[in-house]
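Quick start: read one record
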Amino acid sequence: MSWEHVAAMSRGFLFALAAILPILNPAATAPIFLGLTEGASDSTRALLARRIARNMFLLLSGSMLVGSYVLDFFGISLPIVRVGGGLIVAAAAWRLLSADPSTVDNRAALAEAFTPERARRQAFYPLTFPITCGPGSVAAAITVGVSLTDDRMSVAAARIGGGLTALLACGVLMYFAFRYAQHLLRPLGEAGTLVFLRLAAFILLCLGVQIVWDGVSELLSTVMQPMVALAPPRG
């Protein structure tokens, strides 16, 4: 491998990591993971952490490599993806905010109901998509994939390799953040953890609304631009 390919791979790694990791933000998503898996055992949470990290890597890798082609094939635009995903994120956050203490207690009392089979069913939806890896992450991965292309096949392959390595690093960080989230929040105590989870759920709700608004704004701009172009000049 030449120095040019090493440099291209390094640039691809740094570019993908800088573009995607702040959006994923595993440390901020870990409290949401705890709230949605209330009542699950440590082994079940460890299973979920592995599956979520794996699903995230596969989803964003596919988005980076072929995401733009898939959306074009089905005629789906990124603003539509943002609106749909943002609504799902906001709905999940609202369920967390509206859960009263009795509901949380019931979840803890029915811990056996959160079986590994149930964990496998929920590992992708909603825990991976859209809670952990939402429309913003998918859109960022698609954008990164387009930006890493090059006329020279070998350089493009090196850049994509660096981008995939960055996604792998994000998956490792996400696994450790989810796997040990309960230990990280333990110093807050039970009451402090509950307050922190509610605050994180509120932030997630705001994030969902923001994603919807970004999508709606882009859709409205596409509608208004032709109207502005057809408007007669003043004066």
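The chain has a mean pLDDT of 81.
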